[in-house]
Specification:
There is one protein chain. This protein is an alpha+beta fold and 371 residues long. The chain has three domains: 100 residues, no CATH class; 148 residues, Immunoglobulin-like (Sandwich), CATH 2.60.40; 91 residues, Orthogonal Bundle (Cytochrome Bc1 Complex, Chain D, domain 2), CATH 1.10.760. The chain has eight helices and twelve strands. Helix 1 packs antiparallel against helix 2 and helix 2 runs antiparallel to helix 3. Bound molecules: copper (II) ion. The site of copper (II) ion (CU) has 7 residues, from loops.
Length: 371
Amino acid sequence: MAFAIILVAIVVASVLFHFLSPWQATPLASNWGSIDTTITITFVITAIFFVLIVLFVAYCVYKFRARPGGRSKYEPENKKLEWWLIGITTVGICGLLAPGLVVYNDFVNVPAEADEFEAVGEQWRWSYRLPGADKQFGKSSVANMNVDNPLGLDPRDPAGQDDVMVSGHQLHLLLDQPVKALLRSKDVLHDFYVPEFRAKMDLIPSQITYFWFTPTVLGTFDILCAEYCGIGHYNMRGQVVVEDRESYQQWLSEQPTFAQTLTGGTVGGLIAQGEKLAASRGCLACHSIDGSSSLGPGWLDLFGREESLHDGTQAIADADYLKESITDPAAKIVAGYPAVMAAYPFSPEQLDSLVAYIQSLSSGDAPTVKE
Ligand SMILES: [Cu+2]
């Protein structure tokens, strides 16, 4: 009897939890209301089966409980009941699968008027590219990837010269304009996911995957990586800014083309350059700049600080130390931090700008950068 009551209580608590839970879906900000509908259909069908089955088990536990002198009946076969169960299960499974097939078909059938952007994932950051004025992406290849060409565009391909290399972790999109997302990974599986758009797709090394959506609400939305991709996975975030045409054009005009990045047409001084580099190369996924705790040592007031290393020695965080830690992270591990950072290739000029940026985050009398 007690067990039957517990089962009924589980059903009641589950249903109440669903309606009273503070964790509800975020407001929809794209055209994919149909994805919400499929989730609701799946949810209702599985909820009905859950409630019916658990209540049935509770009924059986009570009805057929052990009684003195009681004996169970032996009934090896019941054709009628089996046909009913097969029929109901079939309808239920079709109800779960069919709506998803229809919506997925829409999800990968891109309308002709859609713009395009490319999102490239790597441990643990996002980079973005737009096709530029010719509306055509230039070719890219792993063989072309280097310090100055992190996305591996083919410098000889004329279609790639005007490709817009978005700087920073924010991708801007036009309100109410359908857009096709082309997804590429440089290392492992990642997943491009904006919860408000209800849209996500895996990034698969050596493939280009895609889907499309239309942003329908102005605002800034987080891009999350929804595929566990290593220790910094939780921090692999970007942002989509949905805006009107005027602000979008303003933003677009500030982004360099591929040709400009090759000729070193970076604007701003050394510190600004380092700040941009830190954002675009993913340093900030693991190093905080506001003093909060992070996977690696934070950069606030780091410059000139004496660090205790895991081997018991001390080191001053000067320019040489910082450059070594970026290009050969395993050389000096600060006590209390895991040795997980990969070596990052940077040119000497880029290293100088990063050090200048880190130094700018230190208050007080930090020593000057020595050359
Ligand atoms: Cu990831």
